[in-house]
Design brief:
The complex is a heterodimer of chains A (158) and B (230). Chain A has 158 residues and is mainly alpha-helical. Helices cover 81% and strands 0% of the residues of chain A. Chain A folds into 2 domains: 11-108, no CATH class; 116-158. Chain A is extended and about 60 Å long. Chain B folds into 2 domains: 2-65, no CATH class; 75-227, no CATH class. Chain B has helices at 2-27, 34-48, 53-64, 67-72, 75-80, 82-87, 89-113, 118-124, 131-141, 145-169, 175-197, 199-227. In chain B, helix 1 packs across helix 2. The relative contact order of chain B is 0.12. The chains are: A mainly alpha (158), B mainly alpha (230). Chains A and B meet through helix 2, helix 3, helix 4, helix 5 and helix 6 of A and helix 1, helix 2, helix 3, helix 4 and helix 5 of B.
C-alpha cells in the first residue's frame, strides 16, 4: 500500500514546489506597484463603462428618446469600438468581469417581488397563458424566419 | 443603525448569489435559476427577520449602481462577433425583429384582453429580453421593474427547458436559426442552453440577446401606443 501510494506523491512534489514559488512570486514578491497598477487599470475601465452609461442616459434624456439610457449606452459603446475611438483593451477586462457576474445585479431587482405576491395570486393564470403563448410564438417566429433566410444562403458548413 | 443594515443586506445578497450559483453549477438544471433562487433566499431571510422592504432599498441602490455600466459592457461581445453579425445579417435582422415583435404583441395583447392592470401589462411587454433592458423598458413606460424581472425569468426558464425541444419538433435544425431563436426568445438563460448545443448556436444566441433588447426597446413605444392608447 505504502509502495503504491508514495510514488505519485513524490512525483507531485516538484509541481507543488514550482506552484508555491510561482504563487510567491505573483502574490508576495511582485512589486506592489504592479498589483496596484492592475487594480487601477480595472477601476479605470469600470469608470469608462460608467461614463458611457451616463452619457447614454444623458443622450436619451436630452433627445427625449423613449428608449432606456442603457440601450443607448450599448449602441454608443459598439459605435465607439467600431470607429476605433475606444480600443477593446480599454474596456474588455471590466466588461468581461461584470458580464460574468451580471446575474448578481439581477437579484436585488428581483427582491422587489416581495411587494407583488398578490398579482401572481390574482392574475397568475392569465399571466402564465400570456407568457407561454408569447414565448412559443417568439421561438417559432424567429426560428422559422431565420432558417428561411439561411436556406437562401449557401448551405451551412457544420 | 442604517449603515449596519446596508452592510447586512449587501452581504445577504452576495451570500444568496454565491449559494444559488454554487447550486446551479453543481446540478446545472435550468430550473435552478440563480436570479429566482437568490431572490427567494433574500426575501425569505428578510421576512424571517421581520425586516421591511424599505430597509432593503439603500443596499439595493448601492448594488444596482453597477448594473448600468455592466449592461453597457454587452457591446463588447457584440463587437468581438462583428464578423458573424455581418455574415448572417439578413437572418439576424429578420429573425430577431419578428421574434421581438411577436413576443410583445402576444404577451401584451393577451394580458390586455385578460383585463390585467395597466402596470402589469406594461411589465409583461418586455418579457423576452434580458433583465437590465426589460427593467428599464418597463420602467420608462410605467411598468414595475420587479414584476418585469419575474416575467423575464419565467420566460427564460420556460424557453431554456422546452425551447430546444420545440425547435426540433418544429423542424428548425439550422444552428444559426436555433441560436437566434434561443437568444431572442429566452435571453441569457436561452443563451446558456444554446452554448450547450454548440459554439455557433451560443454565439448567435448571445448576439440575438443583446440585439433583441435594442429592438424591443425601440419598438416598445409604438406597441405601448398601439395597445394602451390613453
Amino acid at each position: 500500500m505504502d509502495q503504491l501510494a508514495s510514488p505519485p506523491r513524490r512525483r507531485l512534489e516538484p509541481l507543488t514546489i514550482a506552484l508555491t514559488i510561482a504563487l510567491y512570486r505573483e502574490r508576495v514578491a511582485a512589486p506592489p506597484e504592479a498589483f496596484v497598477k492592475k487594480k487601477l487599470r480595472f477601476l479605470g475601465q469600470v469608470a469608462l463603462l460608467a461614463g458611457i452609461y451616463l452619457l447614454g442616459n444623458k443622450i436619451a434624456g436630452f433627445a427625449h428618446l423613449p428608449v432606456p439610457g442603457n440601450v443607448v449606452g450599448v449602441v454608443l459603446l459598439y459605435a465607439l469600438l467600431n470607429l476605433g475611438l475606444v480600443p477593446l483593451e480599454y474596456v474588455q477586462d471590466a466588461a468581461d468581469f461584470l458580464l460574468r457576474h451580471l446575474v448578481f445585479f439581477f437579484i436585488p431587482v428581483a427582491v422587489d417581488l416581495m411587494n407583488w405576491g398578490t398579482v401572481f395570486y390574482r392574475y397568475g393564470l392569465a399571466l402564465a397563458f400570456a407568457i407561454v403563448v408569447s414565448t412559443i410564438l417568439t421561438f417559432l417566429g424567429t426560428g422559422y424566419l431565420a432558417q428561411w433566410f439561411q436556406k437562401g444562403e449557401k448551405p451551412c458548413p457544420s | 443603525m442604517p449603515q449596519l443594515m446596508i452592510l447586512f443586506t449587501i452581504l445577504l445578497t452576495l451570500g444568496a448569489y454565491l449559494l444559488a450559483k454554487a447550486l446551479y453549477l453543481r446540478y446545472r438544471h435550468p430550473l435552478l435559476n440563480i436570479v429566482l433562487l437568490g431572490a427567494a433566499i433574500v426575501i425569505a431571510t428578510l421576512l424571517a427577520l421581520n425586516i421591511p422592504y424599505q430597509s432593503y432599498l439603500p443596499g439595493r441602490r448601492i448594488m444596482t449602481s453597477l448594473l448600468g455600466p455592466a449592461t453597457v459592457g454587452l457591446a463588447v461581445p457584440l463587437y468581438r462577433h462583428r464578423s458573424l453579425l455581418r455574415q448572417y445579417a439578413p437572418a439576424i435582422v429578420a429573425g430577431v425583429g419578428l421574434g421581438s415583435l411577436a413576443s410583445m404583441l402576444a404577451a401584451g395583447g393577451i394580458a390586455l384582453v385578460a383585463g390585467l392592470p395597466r402596470e402589469v401589462v406594461l411589465s409583461v411587454l418586455p418579457k423576452s429580453v434580458t433583465i437590465p433592458f426589460a427593467v428599464e423598458i418597463a420602467r420608462i413606460h410605467g411598468g414595475s421593474p420587479g414584476l418585469a424581472s419575474a416575467f423575464v425569468v419565467a420566460t427564460g426558464t420556460l424557453g431554456s427547458v422546452f425551447g430546444g425541444t420545440l425547435l426540433t419538433w418544429a423542424g428548425i435544425k439550422d444552428p444559426v436559426a436555433r441560436g437566434l431563436a434561443l437568444g431572442t426568445g429566452a435571453h441569457g438563460q436561452g443563451t446558456a442552453m444554446a452554448f450547450m448545443e454548440g459554439e455557433r448556436e451560443g454565439s448567435m444566441a448571445g448576439l440575438a440577446m443583446t440585439l433583441a433588447g435594442i429592438t424591443t426597446a425601440t419598438m416598445a413605444p409604438l406597441l405601448v401606443r398601439l395597445l394602451l392608447r390613453n
